Input
Amino acid sequence: MERVRIIGKDIAIEGAFELPQLARLSSEDQVFIIAFVRSHGSIKEMEQIFGVSYPTIKSRLNRIGKSLEFVDTNPTPSRTEILDRLQRGEIKAEDAIRELEALS
Output
């Protein structure tokens, strides 16, 4: 059972859920990733921000990268999802048939 509290509000959420990958990183690694994104991936800028060498930045990026799973941003839809889209009129019958055949 996990509990998440919204800071500054009288709201807490409890349940069986998993935090997103980035939220599971240590606070130091989260700061590092935020700096990396804000510097547009510039390792030179990261060297200046953190006062460390290129190999140190690369090593840390590699360590963090290995701890993160790749998330498929375009997963194959299930049979139910295809039929639901058809029912809602989002796709034509021919498209639904083609997608269902591709599942086989």
Remarks:
- The chain has a mean pLDDT of 91.
